[in-house]
Amino acid sequence: PTDHPYRNVQTGAGILIFWNDFCNRGKIANFVCKYKRHCTMRLTVELDRMRIRAFHGLLPQEKQVGNIFEVSIEAWFSPSVSSMEREDIDSTVNYADMADIANQIMSEPCELLETVAIKLMKAIRDRWDFLEGGKVKITKVTPPIPVPMKGASVKIEW
Length: 158
Fold this sequence. Notes:
The chain is of the alpha+beta class. It contains four helices and six strands. It has helices at 60-65, 81-85, 95-106, 113-127, and strands spanning 9-11, 15-20, 40-54, 67-77, 133-140, 152-157. The protein has a six-stranded antiparallel β-sheet, covered by helices on one side. It starts with 8 loop residues before the first strand and ends with a strand. Residues 1-32 have low confidence and may be disordered.
């Protein structure tokens, strides 16, 4: 139903929880929502527009002076309700660790933002093998382009 109370609940620290209306996929046994049917929970951990100084780009000036980049990451999975109730950090994505991975990847200069996005995606997937999907968006805040804009971005989804 469109009036499902848990359709899109946002909690603190950038964690989004989505309750899907797909019945009994077997990921969460015996969980019954308000509408008296089995639901699958999808939890998304998100880091939104981290600002990181880095030295990515094709031009010599970009490699010497650097630029400010905004990095946004989403990673989603279907946790068990019991693991979330136990507050087991090993059964979720630690957003502090995700930020550390982003800082590490961003500190390695590349010519293309596409390369940086793929490296970041691979590092996140390698760290949390239970992920079902995610997104990485990297924005160069002041690209060397003589046109007013908020930034130039690449985004990868898996």
